[in-house]
Amino acid sequence: MRLSLSVPFLTLFLLTACNPAVDSSAAKSDPYDATKMDLKPKPATVSSERHSGAFASGSALSLTAELKPLDPEPVKTIQLDTTHRVIEIAPGVKFSAWTFGGQVPGPTVRARVGDKIRFSMTNRSDETVSGVQLLAAPMMHSMDFHAAMVSPQDKYRSIAPGQTISFEFTLNYPGVFMYHCGTPMILEHIASGMYGAVVVEPKGGYPTKVDREYVIIQSEFYAKLDPEKRKVDGVPLYVLDGDRLKAAQPTHTVFNGVHNGMVTHPLPAKPGERVRLYVLNVGPSRTSSFHVVGTIFDRVWIDGNPDNQFRGMQTVLLGSSNSAIVEFMIPEEGSYIMVDHHFANASQGAIGLISTEPKADTKDLEHHNMPATTTPTDPAAIAGKQDFESKCFACHSIGQGKKLGPDLAGVTKRRSAEWLTAWLRSPEKMLANDPVAQGLLKEHNNLPMPNQNLSDAEIRQYIEYFRWIDARPAGSVTAVATH
Ligand SMILES: [Cu+2]
């Protein structure tokens, strides 16, 4: 008697108190109810009709870090053609890339849950771009949208140069989703630049209001000088380094496709404003510990879905193809530094600024970069330091180990001023005649340092800067953020 009464009571208790998900689904409907999703998109079509004109088009696309507002139209028509072209991934480093929409990363798509994406792509890898000779052979490409729920064998199939693939899908989940080429070797296609992001808002929009919205995409490059020694615009061409790629040893780790790009061109914000960043880590092989120096993430929505919320976080850990939306206040005037807090990655270029000043004061950054007492006072050394950070940083570090070129900490101790002057004036002459230079070349995968076209005054400034570094205790100066 007692038992038959208590069992239904116990069941009710378990349902209401111990399993709130069951309880709330009875009251509200599950936003991810699969029976209400569109899971039967039409088959993809492949034709030999070639799209011409712009490589990227569609009102839902943003081409830069600044994310355009949502287009209310529920069907988003998007054209993203694949092209091969040369991009500058760091000052003087022109890299033979494969792209979606003619840029790396590809344009960002913005849409909302329930929207339909009507996608079309022509493989135009056989077309020459604005007079530049064809640098990489035409090849098969494809498109894989992480934002979609579709058959990969149908929608993500590879198409040949000259072919066009078109397909549609409905967005079922909110998030910041990666898209990429899925043609084997996928690793090679991603490392060559074939990726971008789809931002999908919840059906009713985000629960917070913000003043600024930016997209930050982290990715790696694996570059080596072209073994065929080709040049673009008079400078050496860089191509994909397959050995480094397989060993997951990038030469550059960057935000939005460019080494320190958002240091030279900071993203604007004002004190008191709330900023939302859509952060995607493409990889292909490294994780990101995304952090913004000087503030705290009020909200973190893992993979860009507000259902996955954290509050008050300092850093967000993103695996390859993971993302997050982070929101924070800009407390006061200043330059707030976005970094991958894995500092080996930051030193390869994964640094950017959100700044309240239109042109960020690079001295500000220097104060974060190194203790104030380790900033040179001699004008020649200061000039050398500034030039070094803009011209040499892509290949050299100070105190952070080898990059494409040697770590330059201690260089004035191992070389004379005469040798350094001769080297900086003409590395090619030194490589032809000087045994020390020839030894260095061997240690650096036979990658000759390109002539930097320096004046005598500039050479003197670099040497002053290196002397100044070497006069300080070892390790006290590093040319990367170490706040
Ligand atoms: Cu591809």
> CATH superfamily of the largest domain, please?
Cupredoxins -  blue copper proteins
Structural class: alpha+beta
| Helical content band | 10-25%
Low-pLDDT runs of 5+ residues are 1-26, 360-373
Oligomeric nature of the chains:
single chain
The largest β sheet comes out as: 6 strands, mixed
The shape, in one word, is: globular
Counted by DSSP, the helix tally is 14
CATH-assigned fold name of the largest domain? Immunoglobulin-like
Can you list the strand order of the major beta sheet?
A: 17-13-19-24-21-22
CATH architecture of the largest domain: Sandwich
SSE layout:
Blueprint: H1 2-18, H2 20-27, E1 45-47, E2 56-57, E3 61-62, E4 75-80, E5 82-90, E6 93-100, E7 108-112, E8 116-122, E9 144-145, H3 152-155, E10 164-170, E11 175-180, H4 186-191, E12 195-201, E13 212-221, E14 223-225, E15 231-232, E16 235-240, H5 242-246, E17 252-255, H6 261-264, E18 267-268, E19 274-283, E20 288-293, E21 297-302, E22 309-313, E23 315-318, E24 323-329, E25 335-340, H7 343-346, E26 351-355, H8 362-369, H9 379-391, H10 411-414, H11 417-425, H12 427-433, H13 435-443, H14 456-470
Parallel strand pairs: 4-8, 6-16, 7-12, 13-19, 18-26
Antiparallel strand pairs: 1-10, 2-4, 3-7, 5-6, 8-10, 9-11, 11-12, 13-17, 14-16, 15-16, 19-24, 20-23, 20-25, 21-22, 21-24, 25-26
Helix pairs in contact: 9-14, 11-12, 11-14, 12-13
Bound molecules: copper (II) ion.
